[in-house]
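User: Sequence in, structure out. Go.
Assistant: Echoing your sequence, followed by the structure tokens.
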Amino acid sequence: MPEPSLADSTSAPPPVEIPPMFLARQRFDRPRVDDPAAAVAEQLERLLPPSSLRPGAPIGVTVGSRGIANIAEIARAAVDFLRARGAAPFIIPAMGSHGGARAEGQAQLIAHLGVTEASMGCPIRSSMETRSLGTTPEGIDVRIAEAAWEADGILVMNRIKPHTDYKGEIESGLAKMCAIGLGKYDGAREIHGRLFDLGLGVAIRRVAEAVLSTGRIIGGLAILENAYHETARIAAVPAGELLDREAELLVEARRLMGRLPLGEIDVLVCDLLGKNISGTGLDTNVIGRGIHGYVEGVPWCEGMPSVMRIVVRDLSAESDGNAVGMGLADFVTERFLSKVDQRVTALNSMTGCAPAGARTPIVLADDREAITAAIRSSRRRPAGPLIVHVRDTLALVDGMLSEACRPLVEGRSDIEILSEPAPLEFDAGGYLKSPFAP
């Protein structure tokens, strides 16, 4: 006799039905750069006029682990521009402890993004060696990659966006790349270690100021994205104005961010969690849960949604087993767990002083069981549960919504209903046939 599942055991209440779902499309503001390479050249022309670099000068360009739209094209355009100026550009994987804090792991992560020596036409220097530049007045050890220190200069390149751990004038962007990205594992561990006395925002700013004061940073290339995961703007930023300009760009980035279609959700189903999607696997600004722990249904910041239960179906291939942030979910599948590299996940989580992010949620056999369990353990509503299904927290334009959501979105000018409610389709193994599959 087969054993009962956790979702529909004989000792539990009667089986829970998954309600029919309909496809809805959100409308967001959509500024877009049609030719990213041309935009890079135009911006760098202002930042680095002719004769600003000595012939043959080794200049590093930072590339992080996030899945930034057009990142390979943007990085190649920066490399090509520097070479045209007579420099000898190279790529620095700049991502703190990611990639298992190994040189080959960091090179592999950016290779997933299309950034390789062959595609860039230049070397990739992924060594994890760092040197200390002394300490800040607060006692923070300032670390910088040896490859960056040995160069004539560094062009820091990153996306500007709200941070997943803290709020401030400067969050995730160029300053973070100066402090944590270029600091490699040593710098990331040192800065995150000041989380509970100084705060992450203060620590990042102080270290970024120290790195900028060395004169090694020749400027920044800031990337903004719209809610459609498209390049919305590329801006070259002089090193002397980096912190002030980043604060201005963050205001714009917040306005352009995608969001879930409802402020209160009973069950959120995400196809993917991954480091290429967010530093916390699931963007905390989207799901309303904090990486350092959360109270059920209580957003970690004002204005964020209240989500009762979260189901994660799979881990992105680009994450290379790093499932940090899975502690934000309530239910995952056996397929998800089979792809988790516990060592890499624990290392990243502990570097960020956020062990809760590496905790394993309840693991169920398949999607059907996980979604059913989430419904059973969430709020009871006469009209049925409010369920939202998205590909991930970076892809929020299209979503599947349960029947009970329809009265809440009908008539809204920012949402278009694209289909009538219909039962979800599952394969023979109990896994959902997602409309958002690549």
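User: And one key feature?
Assistant: Residues 321 and 341 are 4 Å apart (CA to CA).
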